[in-house]
Model the fold of this input.
Amino acid sequence: MAKGYMISAHRRAADPEKASAYRELAIPALLSMGGKFLSSGGRVVAKENGLAERTILIEFESFEAAVNAYESEAYQKALKLLSGGADRDVRLFEGVD
Done:
């Protein structure tokens, strides 16, 4: 079975207070759903239409697990705290076997 992934590519820096409140709930929520953080910021080199902003990559056991984690009650509660505080592109996608 192919792994599932969540990538969050920010378009600009997030509101620090909202981002902090979001992370307090989001990180434990995603970890409890089997998420494994492969990247949580660090250096970025932007190419083509990319932006050199914060980029997070999280691995899950399957595509379905990634979708379930994003849609979970715990993660949705974290998203409400971030509302309007971040401009990012979030994608859930399936890896290769």
In short: Residues 16-32 form the longest helix (17 residues). The chain has a mean pLDDT of 96.
